[in-house]
Amino acid sequence: MSPLPLSGIKILDLTRVLAGPLSAQMLADLGADVIKIERPGTGDDARAFGPPYLVDPEGKENNNNAFYFCANRNKKSVTVNIATSEGQEIIRELAKTADVMMENYKVGDLKRYKLDYQTIRAINPGIIYCSVTGFGQTGPYAPRAGYDAIFQAMGGLMSVTGHMDGEAGAGPMKVGPSIVDYMTGMNTSIGILSALYHRDANGGEGQHIDVCLLDTVIASLSHYAQIYLVNGKTPPRRGTWGNGGMPAGVFRCADGELMLVVGNDGQFARTCEVLGSPELATNAKFVKNNDRVVNGKEIMAIFAGLFLKNKVAYWLDELEKAGVPCGPVNDFAQVFADPHVRERGMEIKVNHPFEPELSLIRNPITFSGTPVKDYRAPPLLGADTREVLASKLGYDDAKLETLKKQKII
């Protein structure tokens, strides 16, 4: 078996909460040695974003919750107080041999600790230094803090998400999960990997990467934003309606809901056959997709009445036979019980000190030659402090005890 793709890459991770930690977790899954720096006593802010928390074997309150678990597997946790000069020196010493240093502090915060890019670059010219912020390193909003929902609002995502105008509950709506954090994490990983390739394969140098949530959400709006740039009009909120083919949306059936996307005229004709109304496919108002878009409310209303005549399983089976894209509207219990999801192994089990079979979500990338098979549970706070400082920096037990007493680690 070949080594994992990033075996040998050393990453010093000073990020907290979600976007940065998600990126570092992705790189750790792929084989990078990721040292996560946390505050002594409290750790990553995400450790307080509970419940639910795992049950401590001794019944004590703890900081091991679902939010932290989603973004911190396969890492080592080292506690360092970077507000102290000794703690800052520990970070600089670790940075000397790192390939990548990641941080998501407010713009300029780390300069006062002499942990900014220019300082780190002076001691390690080849380092890839990645800053993940809300608004980026430049611009009038650069000093501001922010969280995912703020960027969903400011970046335009909420303006095109939610029930259609005129419907009950209409108005801007937030996407459920922290999707901007997740997408920013992916962009961060892409940036780091690209910079590493440039340095190692193209004879380049280390560099500073600037990734932010606002840039990410704007770029992610893709064809929606491009529509505005072409005609100056913001696309309306469509609820569950699709963005191209018509009809497309959630339809209520006799016992639940399904999602249907009719992508072309052939699929429309076959769907009409399945629904027992083949004449709709020859109706002048619905023959071509553009016609169905113009008369969208009418065809959606007709389909809504037809789908109520039978159960979800029946329609899914018949539509699948007809080659029409559709799927059930699953809750998480149904997602993880789905035989395809189970075959793909999306739920993995890891051994955690509090739970011998802790369930996590596997890395979604599958390699034929370097598969990600072994997962380590998200670490307890500071679990690896002694091992890392002893092995990487040569600290002996006496020095480690002194640093602990001084609350530096």
Automatic annotation (TrEMBL):
Pfam families the UniProt entry points to: CoA_transf_3
Coiled coil (UniProt feature): none
GO MF assignments: CoA-transferase activity
InterPro entries referenced in this protein's UniProt entry, alphabetically: CoA-transferase_III_domain, CoA-Trfase_fam_III, CoA-Trfase_III_dom3_sf, CoA-Trfase_III_dom_1_sf
Keyword annotations of the record: Transferase
Record PANTHER family: SUCCINATE--HYDROXYMETHYLGLUTARATE COA-TRANSFERASE
Name used for this protein in its record: Crotonobetainyl-CoA:carnitine CoA-transferase CaiB
